[in-house]
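Incident log, structure service

09:12 report received: a user says their structure output differs between two submissions of the same chain.
09:20 pulled the input from the user's history:
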Amino acid sequence: MKLNDFPADLQPHLVPAPSGRMVYQCLECGREYGITELLYTCPACRGLFLLVDKNEARLKERPGAFWRRLFDHRRMLTLPALKGIFLYYELIAPVIPLEDIIYLGEGHTPEVQACPALAEQVGRPFAFKNDGQNPSASFKDRGMAAALSYLNFLVQSENLGRVLAVCASTGDTSAAAALYAAYLGDKVASAVLLPHGKVTPQQLAQPLGAGARVLELPGVFDDCMKVVEALADHYQVALLNSKNSWRIRGQESYAFEIAQAHDYELTGLAVVVPIGNAGNITAILQGFLRLHDLGIIDTLPRVLGVQSSHADPVFRYFREPKGRRVFTPVAVRPSVAQAAMIGNPVSMPRVIRLAEEYTRRAGEESVAVVQVSEQEIMDSMLLANRHGHIACTQGGESLAGFRAAIQAGLLGPNETGILDATAHHLKFIGFQQMYFDNTFPPEFEVVPKPEYQNFPQLLTPTTDDPKEKTADLARQIAALLGLTPKGA
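09:34 re-ran on a clean worker, output below:
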């Protein structure tokens, strides 16, 4: 649709020019720093940052109805920079010129409704938001689109020369970081640090294929993260984990898309998200709060975080009474939800701050965290995918958490779930095969249920006559599947 075909009052706003004044604001001491440096924690107190637009008040000069109309009409533009997460340009990173924005097809992933049989079995209507349909097959592309667009802008505007982008990962982050860095070519070199033996072959193949330098370290994700933090403290590198505030900004688009998909009416919605490094739940809370600030939405939906009992520090924190909560990292055990197998989430300070504000506005029950077992995660993933979904193990974790919340009475009878399937099912296909073959090591605590196992079945002809083999195999299949002959 051409620009002059849009309503006249929206035409000047559809293709935005850079605006705003963004700064890093420390959550602990409140100090602010300019965005022309590669900063991830406060130099004064080591606190985490939130990105803040010091001129965001200008957005409140227009009513929520204006922004709803603008975002809805902007979806019809064909300009690549505004087709992905930057459709919400004013809310993501309004300082980045459109020509510096990287768009690889991320964002605007579908909400796929559970079929009636599955919804009835679970006990509530719900949908999976399939973030595995992002370009690198996970939700991490949302954050990378913002972080690498910012880096592209910074490299050119500050003449930084070639920059090394580095991240620690359990798989999805490295795939996304390597993909977006590769798109920038010689401007950015890419390195990823992975815990040795803790990443699926499918996930390992992605950064290798994108040309990143892949370095495996002993231990778990938390050990790799410590090394990445040391590199960011002492060397000129771009850290691409969720400690990077631009990552959080990009991932807010998940909340914006849910609001838009439901015509900005979020009463009765429960958004269910697995918690790993806590970046995604941070972004979702912050995204909904900012929409609420601008009057784009009137009601904040419930946000339900989910953790496996094998990696549950956030659950343990919120389980305590409000006045007695103290965050304590935990030692993780092996989990099928590998992306969530993190015992010391980097974004926990952000979660605490944002959850306090969220519950102040929407009530104490508006943010909750539930715990599920590894068995429930695998069973839920297979249950979902047997009903037409493409949920990964983290998507299974979301469904297991949704079911646990229903059973615990945390959700009302009229609430509908929007479940985060963070990655594509095929990234975690090895766990499905382990389930089918009953080869899970004991530490996973997963025992296959026969009704969820599935195997190929070899059929062989019962005749050597070449002319009869086809008809013989067809008869075998018809008998096996209970087919009705034509004319019967």
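09:41 both user submissions now match this output. Likely a transient worker issue. Closing.
09:42 reviewer note: The longest strand covers residues 188-195. The chain has a mean pLDDT of 93.
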